[in-house]
Fold Cytochrome c biogenesis protein CcdA.
Amino acid sequence: MRKIIFLLLIFLAFAKGNAQILDPAKWTTKIEKKSENTYVLTFNAVIEKDWHMYSQFTPDGGPLALEVIFKNQRGNFNLVGKAKESKTTTAFNDVFGVNETYFHDKAQIQQQVTITNPKLTTIEVDLNYQVCKEACINLEKKFTFVIPSPSKTAVDASKNAAAVIDTVKSDSTVVKTEVEKATVIPAKVSIPDANPVSKRGLWSIFFIAFFSGFAALLTPCVFPMIPMTVSFFTKQSKSRAKGIKNALIYGVSIILIYVVLGFLVTWIFGAGALNALSTNVWFNVIFFLLLIVFAFSFLGAFEIMLPQSWANKVDSQADRGGIVGILFMALALAIVSFSCTGPIVGTLLVEAASKGGIAPIIGMFGFSLALALPFMLFAMFPGWLHSLPKSGGWLNTVKVVLGFLELALAFKFLSNADLVLQLHLLEREVFLAIWIAIFGVLAFYLFGKITLPHDSPLPHISVGRLSFGLVVLMFTIYLIPGLWGAPLKLINAFPPPMEYSESPMGFGASEVTESAAVLPDGAKSGPHGLVVFDDYEKGLAYAKTVNKPIMLDFTGYACVNCRKMENNVWSDARVLSQLKNEVVLISLYVDDKRELPKEEQSVSKTTGAEITTTGDKWTDFMISKYKTNTQPLYVLTDLQGKSLNEDKPTISYVGVEEYASWLKTGISKFKK
């Protein structure tokens, strides 16, 4: 009995020592024959609670996107389109400044392939992906699909499905696990298009579109149409009830026209493809040029008009009467007002398309609802028409303001393209300078200091215009400190991130100047002006010369929680002081894809994986030394590499109090 208990304790101790090697996603696979030479490969994952895995459609500049890599594709098979995904969630990540797309609870990836080599027997696939909760893990799984023999039935094929060698790899370093079975299931599994946006994202699109519809109402192309159209219905109808009914039909027709437009955009391009396009360089450049054209149209350089023949044909149909005639009247409004509504609708479609899913439909519904409501309400309560302000120069002012907003938004799309290419042509300071110029000129326009082609004479400015001008001027002044490193939290979703700037730590910051002047060999300036090494050996050598403990920071370029710790915890005065003065900071990036020199490449003694990149090297170091594969991971060691905090050798995603206390305890022990 004692022996059994002793063996059980040893087993539990061993299990505890290895429990930190995390694998929150459990995969199963299957292969299905669709036609003579076409097969569907399906990957199903069950994701542990509170963890999420990033989609292949997560844009560049954010967390690591999922990659589906076909190892033996060349000369053997062709891919039919891009791998499809099951339901995902899209939400804005304020750390990286991008809309990240991810799975939670479960995920399914499907890829259709066409076999071109009749002798092919297996398809080799690697999945590279990142999963995060309080820590992030970069993983790789390898799968082997055995192609069923053409002469066998689906049942026979399922009996002979190949074993899939499933290995877990943390940033290219493999940790061996059990073998999983691939099964062949005859029934076709359908999954929705990739990347429907989250409910919160759809509500945001709806409200933005709704207020944009109200803005369109206040343009010179639409506003004068309200009393004219409502008067037509009330006078031409035999009774007030009939007039109200016709106005309601007219409003519903407006909504129907724009919703159909949103549906066509979604249907033609595909819900998932729209989101993928949002990160495409050329499409961002095209959107930038498109919005520039819209902006100059609103500013009065020219008018975007649909062919007059369209308006004439539609107008002739409006005389038919009945529901069909009212529908054509609504269509006539859309065509006639296109020079004002077109740029707004185009901008909304571009923005909604970048969200993917049914966002274009939701956007057009919100826009058209705002556009249609006044026609319906004034028909029900015609007495309200007398309270409407008269048409005048103020309508053109609204149009010009929208032009400036279009111009500012255009540079967001150009910034996206620049970030993806990492050209550093539109860094944070340049972007903010452009916005300061745009909104500064808008403020001067609202104060009457600048006039544009279609403006009416302005003997004085109204209180409303003055008030709005002051708001714009305050916003412009608010932007100016951003040129010197202010975070500008009100607009953090728009400009490039702080690190994508000429002065990542802030222009003229004394801490940066001092650290830059005394940087030791192998070090660089890091967050908050900290001196950081990204090579362990160089950092250790420096620590020995200054006789300070080492703070190992296992991190990743695409690690969200690593950035949160740096921004929220390291920035605290108590923590920052210790990191600057009491330790030597070594940040080891486990997703560093720089290839190691041939003589430094090897096979891990711990995991048996190939170590070919710098990230592989640090990942293997983390797993072999600290038995974990999570980031962020912080370790405080002495000059012999021994952990100084015996009770808590490593620490991860924690708050300021715990982090500061952990640092203080380890540093105190080193000084004894």
About this structure: The chain is about 45% helix and 20% strand.
